[in-house]
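Our consortium's second objective concerns turning raw sequence data into structural hypotheses that experimental partners can test. To show how far this objective has progressed, the report includes one record in full. It was chosen at random from the queue rather than selected for favorable results. The single chain below, 359 residues long, was entered without modification.
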Amino acid sequence: MQYIEPPGGRPWALLAIAGSSLLLNAWFVMSRPSADDCNVAPAAQAAQVATAQVPAAQVPGAHAPAAQLASVAGAAPATDALPAEALMVAQEPAAAPSKAPQLPGNLIHVSTEVTHSFARTFQKAVAEEHADVVSAVYARLFFWDLDVRRDLQAGDEVKAVYGWDGTLADIPAASYRSGKLGQTLQAYRYQASGDRFPSYWNAQGQEVGLRLKDSPIAEYEQVTALLKDRPSHRGMDFKTPVGTPIVSPRNGTVTRTNWNTKYNGGCVEVRYSDGVVAKFLHLDSTEVKAGQSVSKGTLLGLAGNTGRSTAPHLHYEMEKGGKVLDPVDYHGTFRRSLPQADMAAFQAEVQRYQAMLDR
C-alpha cells in the first residue's frame, strides 16, 4: 500500500489528537478540589444545616439572615473565609432545654403504671434484684388507705425514689395515684420535733400511718405488717430497735412467758380484764412472770430480734374465744398532724422530694 505524506510533510491529525489530550488532562487537574477544600467541606455542610435550623436572631453576633449564611457556607471556601457566625453555629448547638432535677446520692427514680400486682409492676420498672424488696417497702407506705390486694387498677400511677444498699431498699418519698380512690396518696419522710424516729406524712402534714390508741409501744419506726396483709400473719408488726420498752395496754394478768421460744423468742402473754388474750413476741427480755397482775402501762419487756425474726420488731397479736382479733379494730386508731412549728421546714422537704418524683 502506498503511504501518502500529509501536506507540508507534517502529521497534522496526530498532532491534533495529542493536543486535545493535553488540554483535557489540564482541565481535570485544575478542576480537582484541593486537600484544604476537602477538609473544609464537612464543616461548611454542618454550618449550612445548623444555620438553616437556627434563625439569625438567635445566633450571637449575627448580622446576616440565616439564608445568606447558609449560602456563604455552602460555597466551601477556606476555613478562614467562613463567617464567624457560621463557624459558631456549626460548633455550638442550640441551647438544650432545662434538665430535670438530678437525684442526690445514689437515689433511683421510679415512674410507672400498675400492670398487675405491685410485685409484677416493679419487676418491669426496676432492676430485677431490687424488684421484690422495693415493691414490699412501697406497699407498706400506703396499706393504711389502700388494700394492696383488691384496690389496684391497671393504669394507676406509681412514683418513688429509693436507695439501695445491696440488700435493702429505702424509700424517702413516694406517691400513688389511685383510680379507685380518685386521689393521689403521698408519703414524704420527715422527723417531727420531739419524735425519736422519722415518719411519713402527706403534703398537708398528716401522718400517713395510723396509730393505735393505748398502744403497747410508743416509739417505733414504722408498722411493717398488718393482720390483713396475709392469711398466715396473725398480728401487727412494729419495726423498732432492740431495747424499746413494751407495755401492757390494759389491766390484766400475765398467763405465761417464754413459751415456744424457737419461733416466738422472748415472749409474754397477758389476759386483759375483758377476756382478750394478747401476745407480745420476739422480745429481747421479759420483765414480768406468769400469774403477775399488770396495770395499763406496766413494762412487760424490751423489744428484740429473737425467735423467727429477721429484724428487730414487736409482733403484737390478739384473740378471744379462739378467734383472732385485729388490733386496729380492737384499739381504734388516730392520725397525727405535724406541729405547726415544723410546717415550714416540712414544706421545703416536700418541694425537694416532689421535684425528684416529677423529674
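The partners drew two points from this record. The chain has three domains: 35-91, 108-201, 211-334. The chain is about 30% helix and 25% strand. Both points have been shared with the crystallography group to help prioritize constructs.
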